[in-house]
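W.,

You were right to be curious about this one. When I first looked at the sequence I had no strong expectations either way, so I just let the prediction run and decided to look at it fresh. Below is the sequence, 179 residues in total, followed by the output.
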Amino acid sequence: MDPGADLIRRMAAGDRQAFAPFYDRFAPLVYPLVLRIVRDRQDAADVLQDVFWEVWQGAHTYDPARGSPEAWIVMRARSRAIDRVRAVRRRSETFVAPLDDSVAQAPAGGGADAASLAADRETALARLPEPQREVIELAYAAGLTQTEIAERLKQPLGTVKSRIRLGLERLREAFGGAP
């Protein structure tokens, strides 16, 4: 059994001892993604805390048939980060320019698992055709909606949706998932 899935199963059963290794394993993967989306270290730390609290509370909802533990927590983190960005935008009605990628690097001491996952992700993204890579990066790294991407790129919404779908299918194939 996948170690991450085993930790989730143990948390779902109420095993408090499983939470710390789960956090240690996945925080180095989640934090850079959240930071890249929210662009503020304090907000990223708050979102990270919210995500792991939500994972603890909702561990029983994890279904290994629907994806890996990494995909499960990354999607939760991405959703919470986008929620935070939208809340901040509503409050301030201003857009903050993106940070350098160097700011969003994994914290020192991050696990080898997170580093190898990040390298694999970058390699798989680099192999995508430019139009697919661009929309996926805007959606997942910049936290934009499909409508916002269409407006930014001055492309029809249907084109953006198709490119995201095709790009995600190629990424699934690259990581050995079902097409």
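Here's what jumped out at me. The chain has two domains: 1-94, 111-179. And, maybe more interesting for your project: The chain has eight helices and no strands.

Coffee later to discuss?

I.
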